[in-house]
Known about the structure:
Blueprint: H1 3-17, E1 41-50, H2 54-66, E2 72-75, E3 91-93, H3 100-107, H4 111-131, E4 143-147, H5 153-165, E5 170-173, H6 175-181, E6 189-193, E7 197-199, H7 202-215, E8 219-221, E9 228-232, E10 235-239, E11 243-252, H8 262-265, E12 275-278, H9 283-289, E13 296-299, E14 305-309, E15 315-319, H10 338-351, E16 360-364
Parallel strand pairs: 1-2, 1-11, 2-8, 4-13
Antiparallel strand pairs: 3-7, 4-6, 5-6, 9-10, 10-11, 12-15, 12-16, 13-14, 14-15
Helix pairs in contact: 1-10, 2-7
The structure holds flavin-adenine dinucleotide (FAD).
Amino acid sequence: MRSSSRHGTSTIAEAALRDAAPAVLWLEQSDRPQVGQPLTGSVGADLVIIGGGFTGLWAAIQAKEDDPSLHVVVLEAGRIAHQASGRNGGFCSSSLTHGLDNGVSRFGGEMERIEALAAANLAGVEASIERYAIDCDWHVPGQLTVATAPWLVDDLLEGAELARRYGHEVTVLDTEEVRAELNSPTYHAGVWQRSGEALVDPARLGWGLADAARSLGVEIHENSEMVELERSGAAMVVRTTNGRVRAGAVLLATNAFRSPLRRINATVAPVYDYVLATEPLSDEQLASIGWANGQGLADTTNQFHYYRLTEDRRILWGGYDAIYHYGSRIDPSLDQRPATHELLARNFFDTFPQLEGLRFTHRWG
Ligand SMILES: Cc1cc2nc3c(=O)[nH]c(=O)nc-3n(C[C@H](O)[C@H](O)[C@H](O)COP(=O)(O)OP(=O)(O)OC[C@H]3O[C@@H](n4cnc5c(N)ncnc54)[C@H](O)[C@@H]3O)c2cc1C
């Protein structure tokens, strides 16, 4: 990119970011559920699950589906799905290995089985959403992966071949065809994988899972951070600031957050990922880019972007930087990183120069 045009993009990006709120688009919805009661006093349980994101909520549902007589308690430090589960891109891919090529390079001979499990997993996710009638904009438009430089095209085509070998439905698009799907001057080729790639509103999915868990009798407490975990005879005791749970089993579904178990902390490196969301596109703005099939998008560089349309026609645009903060720090102040948000905004307008004037409304991490 010539420096004069890069300078132009910087000015456009700066203006577009000016009024973006430091907030998560998905969590700002007006029908976000009321915050649930914190744990107070002492309770007993068969299973206590720490963490109210996808992992914890889905585990609670599965435990009750397997054995309805179990008493299951979920303790969430903040609010349901307020961390990674409610602030992600909403790409739900069947891949368990973050891409087939990555899986093949690491697990070679086991990939047939891993892919079979992956397909069953995605089908299971979809079946749960249907079974509990979760209104979360689940749809399966597939994923369009684009090459943004001529030298990336060969890799893209190899990826398409690999996907076909593992039974995925894949269409290869040349420059003209990919730009007919989504019009960016940066695209040289594309691969549209139609199977195994869904999009979802992740916060609504989290809230819906919490409702489903409650409907099965799971006891959920918010603002109930586990501060201590200890063994007590054959049981485990979890303490929060105002309460305690004595349980036969504990499941830690705390993602990359600091654990009271030091051994876990030593194996976790939290990495921050940053996202922008635009205001809803007008008919003309949408017509200028196309995107009639609404696929999830990813580019193929090492530092890749992911982007998609939301139900109300915004563009969610994230990725590129992956930032580790010294000392494995996780802190709400790190949810904002102006340098990365500005870089994301510049890359956005390099990709879609015809959207000059479109504003970002949300930025988060
Ligand atoms: C910006 C971003 C974009 C992403 N995009 C995608 C994507 O498009 N597709 C995809 O597949 N993945 C994506 N991911 C990853 C995905 O969001 C996570 O893998 C997933 O949400 C993890 O779910 P979880 O339940 O394990 O963790 P979380 O949702 O983080 O839940 C863990 C919960 O544990 C709670 N907790 C922590 N410590 C305690 C404690 N001591 N006591 C009580 N509760 C505690 C936390 O408050 C939190 O709510 C993205 C992640 C980010 C951050």
